[in-house]
User: Fold these one by one.
Assistant:
Number 1:
Amino acid sequence: PKKVIYDTDPGVDDAMALLFLEYSPDVDLVGITTVLGNHTIETTTRNALFLKDYFAIAAPVAQGAGRPLVLEPTVPPTYVHGENGLGDIPLPDVIQSRVHDLPAHEFIIKTVRDNPGEITIVAVGRMTNLALALRQDPGIVPLVREIVIMGGAFGFKGHSGNVTPVAEANIIGDPHAADEIFAAAWPIVVVGLDVTQEAVMTTAYLEALRDASGRAGQFIWDISRFYETFYRTTTGLEGIPVHDSSAVAYLLDPTLFTTRGGPIRVVTEGIAIGQTIQQPNTRKFRPNAWSNRPDHAICIDGDAERFLKLYFDTI
Ligand code: BDR
Ligand code: CA
C-alpha cells in the first residue's frame, strides 16, 4: 500500500475523501494534517479528531495553519459546509482523540524524512502547511514520492473558478502558498475543478451508497444533505460534485485521468488573484514568467463513471 499523508480542511467532501482513503486496501494512511479553509483551524481540527474517533482511524491528527502565509483569513464558508463544517449533523460534546505533539508542517517534514521516497501527500485544502514545510526544510523535495492536489481551475470542459470566475477555493485561500508549492521540483499532479465538477454523485447514488454501506454510507448521506442543498440552490445541480475524493481517485488509479504537463503559476495579486495557469510543454514560448519552473501535471479529463464505481465499491 502507498503511505499517505492527508492534508485537509474537513469539510463535507474532505470527510468523504478521508473515508475513501481509510477504506482503500491500497492506502496506508500515516497521518492527517489539518488546515483552515472550510472552517477555522479549531473547527477543521475538531472535525478531523471526531472522524478519527467515529471511524476508529489509526492515523494521528496534526494541527496545521490557522492563517494563510500572506493574506488575512477569510470568513468560513458555513453556507457550503454548515455551521460545524460537517453539514450540521449533531456532533458529540466530548472528543476522545488528541492532536499530535508536532504542528502539521513539522509532522510532514519528520514523516517524509523518516520514510524517504515513500510518502505521497494528498492535499485537499489550502497549501499553507506544505508551504511552511517547504520553507523550513527544502531538503524534503526530492524525498517526497508524489503530491496530489485538489485545487485550481484551468478552463477545460467549460469549467472555471468557484470563488471568482477564475479562482478555485483552495488556491485563492492561500495563493502564495500554492505558487511556492508549484515552484518546487517535486512530482505534483493537480486535480482541479475541470475534472472534479464532471464527477457528480446524484441523490440516487448517495441513497444507494447509504443503503449498501452501513455506518459509513449513512454518515456520508447525513453530512451531504446540507451540501447538496447548497449546490442545488446555487448551481441547479442535482447532486454533489466530488472534489476531494477525485484527488484520492487519482492516487488509487491514475488511469482514470488524462493529464497535461507544464509549469504552473498562481496569480497572487489583483483582480485574477488565485487563478492557476499552466504553460503547456507541448509548444515553445519565448522566455517568460513560466520559464525555469518545473513541469507539473494537471488533469484535463477523467472517467467519472469508473471513478464513482471505485468510490462506491471502496466504501
Ligand atoms: C475545494 O474547496 C473546498 O470547499 C472543498 O473541500 C474542496 O477542497 C473545492 O473548491
Ligand atoms: Ca477540502
Number 2:
Amino acid sequence: QIGVRFLGGQAASPLRESAVEEEMDWDNLGFGLVQTDYMYLMKCGEDDEFEAGQLSRFGNIELSPSAGVLNYGQGIFEGTKAYRSENGGLFLFRPQENAIRMQIGAERMCMQSPSVHQFIHAVKQTALANRRWIPPPGIGSLYIRPLLIGSGPVLGLAPAAEYTFLVYASPVGNYFKEGTAPINLYVEDVFHRAGRGGAGGVKSITNYAPVLKAMRRAKDKGFSDVLYLDANNKKDIEEVSSSNVFMLKDNVISTPPTNGTILEGITRKSIMDIAQDLGYQVQERAIPIQELLGADEVFCTGTAVGVAPVGSITYKGNRVEYKMSTELGCLKLHSTLVGIQRGEIEDSRGWLVQI
Ligand code: COI
C-alpha cells in the first residue's frame, strides 16, 4: 500500500482548506494513515452513561497499562467514509448501520456502547472538523474510524469499568496496492479466521491480529490477500481478511450467509440491494470453494476495500483466473455503488447523510 505524504509535516495547525489541496498528493492516495487535525473522544464510567463527547487535536491517548483493551483485547471498531460530491456537498454513507453494528458488537464483548445518535453525531463532528482532508470529488474519501475500547483497568479477566469511544479520520484511496486492478487471492487451509460461537461476526479488534500471519505468508508469495474457509470442514468459503466475498455465475450473485462467523458488511448489504436493482438474483448460501473456482466473476466488498474484482484464486497449488465483464457484473456493481456514494446516481434508498 502506498503511504501518503502530507508535505506540510504534522497537521497540527488549522491550515486553510486550499493549503491541503495544494500540498496533498491526492492522486497517489493509498490506504496509509495520513494524520488529520481532530479526533472525537467520549468516555463512559461506572454509571454506564457516556459523558458529552468533544473534539480534540489528533494525538496520543493515555491508558492504564492494565486497560481492558491492552490486556484482554476488549475493543471493537467501525469503518465508514465521507465523500465530497461534484457540487461541493459532503456526505456520509449509511452511518446508522455502523452505529447499530457497534452496539451489537459491544453487547457481544460486554461493553457499553454509544447510542446511535451519539455515534452519528461523533462521526459527523469528526468529518466536519477534518473536512479539508476529504479528497476532491472522484478521487477517494475520508475514512473514518470509530473505536470503542475498554479503557478501565482490570487484572483478572473481566469487563472494564470504563469505556472510551474515539473517532479519527484519514483520507484514503484504493485499499490494495493493485489499485483498481483485479486482486489475487490465496485460499488458506491451515489458519481459520473464525469458528462457530466465536466473535467472527462482530468487528472485534481480536479478529484482525490473528490473520496477520496468514496474510504475511500470502503476501510473501505475491498474493494480495487471503480467502478463509470454514473451520469445521475446510470446504465452504467465509471471507477475506479485510472484506466479504461474492461470486457471480450466470445471472446469480451469491455470498455466504453471515451465521456468526462472517462480518455483516455494510458494503455487502448494499451490494446485495444494488445487485437486485440491476436485475440479478441474489442468494445468501453456503458456497463450497470448488464452486467458487467455477464462477464467472468473484469480487470482494468492504468499506475500506470498496468493490474489488478478483483476478485469480489459488487453492492447493492450482490457480484459477477470472475475466471481468467490462460493462456488467462486478464493475457495474462497483460503478453504481460509487455513483451513489459520490452523489452522481440517485440515492433512492436514502443511504446518504449530508453533513
Ligand atoms: C473496513 O473495511 O472498514 C475495515 O475495517 C477493514 C479493515 C481491515 C481496514
